[in-house]
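Record DAGKc domain-containing protein, 550 aa.
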Amino acid sequence: MPNSKKTKHGGNQQHVTIVPVEPVKGDNVDTVAYSSRSRISGESGHLIADVQSPHAKEHRIIFDRDHNVFEFRLLDGSSKHLIVYRLDELLSTTCFPLKIKSGIPVIPTKPVTSDKTLYFNFVYKKDKKQWRLKQIPVVFYTTSERDYWHSLIDTTLRRVKNRPKNIIIFINPFGGKGKAQKIFKDNVEAFFWLTPGLRYKVMLTERANHARDFIVEMPSEQWSALDGLVSVGGDGLFNELLSGALLRTQNDAGRNIDDPNTSHLVTPHIRFGIIGAGSANSIVSTVHETNDHATSAVHIAIGSECNVDVCTVHQHQKLIRISANAISYGWLGDVLRDSEEYRCLGPVRYQWSALRTTIRHPIYRGIVQFSLSHKEDVNPKDQLPPCLEPCPVCNKSQGDDKYDYHWHAEFTHVICCVIPTVTPFTPHGLAPFTGIGDGTLDLALVPRISRFHNMQFMRKVAMYGGKQLYELDPSLNCYRVTKWSYQPDSDQNDPGVWNLDGEILEQPKDEPLHFKLHPQLISFFGRDAAMVKPTKRSFIKKRKSSIVYQ
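=>
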């Protein structure tokens, strides 16, 4: 059939043929960008069919397998009636119609197959951030034609190299106020069900670190056959998947992940996906610029990919935590610690604990040491105030030669961003400079400030985001670093806690914690649209700081 010529068939031409390789006519097709993720090796030529719309209007559909695009043309002699879709926008084809609610498909209980109609299920951008699904029905002249196209396209989609074939979905049944399972069923699962060749297994977590332990202890055959891990929950559940996958990968490769001086860790062969069903959902909001569940599902199903930086946290030559989001100490750490007592309040507990922490106004004294990224063009020695005396590093009684700079001070905030960190409380992002895979950490050091100025500071972060805040006040002590450490002064009764990806990390009283960047160590199912372009310090006019140090 592929090499057949057009012939008469029941008074009509046979409408399917493969023609020699040549450009498809029309500028709209020639300007479509080539999509490497959808390239099918060994496939070429154009598949062409004359078809009808459900309203009996004549159309021609062309599948250009050299450029991986579909062209739908209305045969009315007009060049304006032309629609072009990329292969990577095609989720699947079906021989039955789907019920679609606001762009989200519903798994049919009893699919009713149409006689000659093939339904193209394309994903599209509903607005600037959200993705949805739409169905285009195409009526062929014979059932055999329809079945041929359906079989060929289904086989083609199964061979697209970047689309996942085998994933495990971990659901925290208590996430999203207990609605995580409903979120998956109503907004996510149908996208996976429609994806050709995708096998998925759903697991409900039963305890803390259940997902991490499952990944570490997974049989080798099962682990090597996976190409994706998906979490349906908050940032804490994703951190379990991240930790388990990195530990498993480094152990299999014989790498010492405990050593903070290890420069090259092995990238896991799997990609990570997140369906945000927690309180903050910072990671998924940063990667997709939205916490929309269907959007996350679309990017997983079509195999979108972006690389993300990771930060490891070490104590005494021992790995204790892994972060792919934000790490904060001082006021933000104390807010999280206090909020744990009010989980029954839901997300509003953060506002309540923020008020309580502001009244208490915690200040912590300690030493921050760090090394700059090659992308940083500011010398901290020209900006940082003198160290608080006595400074053990200045006096040579303490310090680490691995770091180039240090500052001993009383801190209201110590904040490190691995990614821009978009949350409901920081909708414009917390980080001034870093992107989701640019090979730098943003380290912000805010010394002792008054309650009033701390409230002003947090309000401006929420209103403007870190990038615009820095433009308003370039005297803020924020640097692009690759590694750093923090050690509190030993004479403090409370050494404080860290807010690491929404989970509490205790700060040792007499020992430093070391933080190490690993650029683009993991891959996400997500487009790199959230990349924050670095702010050029040289273009920012210096002005007097609006923060008053107390």
